[in-house]
Amino acid sequence: MSFSASLIALALAGAAPATAPQAPEFRQRAPEDEIVYFLLPDRFENGDPRNDTGGVKGDRLATGFDPAHKGFFHGGDLKGVIQRLDYIQSLGATAIWLSPVFKNKVVQGPKGNESAGYHGYWVTDFTQVDPHLGTNADFKALVDAAHARGMKVYMDILINHTADVIEMAECNGYDCAYRSRADYPYSRRTADGAAANPGFAGDAVATAENFARLTDPDFAYSVKIAPHERDIKVPAWLNDPIYYHNRGNSTFTGESSTMGDFVGLDDLMTENPRVI
Ligand SMILES: [Ca+2]
Ligand SMILES: [Ca+2]
Ligand SMILES: [Ca+2]
After folding, report:
1. In the CATH scheme, what is the code of domain 24-154?
2. Which of 55, 122, 175, 250 could form a disulfide with 163 if both were Cys (CB 3.0 to 4.6 A apart)?
């Protein structure tokens, strides 16, 4: 009896198969041994035309969809990638690197020169697949299908910035010159020169206690956020401008290399342990 009871116990535990402790072969393969195929799902294969406009109605400035323009969504999606796994594997690839799949700000850019987040690098929601590309379930299906073939999937996850949501009162977001820590210290409000952030010991002291004293984000510019965009970022703490550098655009030299905005994209204050 005890033998068969053990068998039953094994069967009940059996959701995790008896072979579970052995990692699949693809997990044992070192990253340097992968042949990685990089792709933008939007530009690869359209597996479901119903998601082409991301569930939004209107023209391309609303939906982001215009396959005749290189700056807008073209219709490709995660279902399309699943359909073409045979092709990708036949090229000799052992892994796929997807451009970021998270939900993006659909359209941004100066008036008359707008483009869409087809490339995935303007994230607003780090918990959801962009509706132009499919659903979270589609992403799981893709990963499962790749693993079943012994292929890996690399996620591209942005930790430097989010979409361009924060604006500056003193300039147009695409023309905001970089304002350095030396010229615009954390301890002074830029608009009126009043003292700000008393007790903040600077961004080199990476403790929660120190950053709790950084409460006023208006040291270099006066930040502003359009009312309809105040809550669009997920997780919600990303909607607080105190977690960003807010010093204007990077010139890709010196301090601005890490603290400047990439052409207006809101640059996260990665010195803050909360952000990390
Ligand atoms: Ca599609
Ligand atoms: Ca911005
Ligand atoms: Ca940065």
Report:
1. 3.20.20.80
2. 122
Which residues are paired to 27 by β-bridges?
A: none
Query: Residue 59: which region, alpha, beta or left (left: phi > 0; alpha: psi -120 to 50)?
Result: beta
Report CA(104)–ligand 2 centroid distance (Å). 14
Token readout for 131 is: 């509706």
Q: How far is the CA of 239 from the centre of ligand 1 (A)?
A: 29
84 CA → ligand 2 middle, Å: 36
In which band, very low, low, confident or very high, does the pLDDT at 20 lie, cut at 50, 70 and 90? low
Taking 90 as the threshold, does the pLDDT of residue 18 lie above it? Answer: no
Measured CA to CA, the distance from residue 220 to residue 263 in angstroms comes to: 17
- Residue type for position 209: E
Domain boundaries, the chain: 24-154, 160-276
Rounded CA separation 40/227 (Å): 31
Strands 36-39, 95-98: pairing is parallel
Q: Which ligand is nearest the CA of 162, by number?
A: 2
User: 8 pLDDT exceeds 80?
Assistant: no
Whether residue 193 has pLDDT greater than 90: yes
Please give the mean pLDDT across all residues of the chain: 92
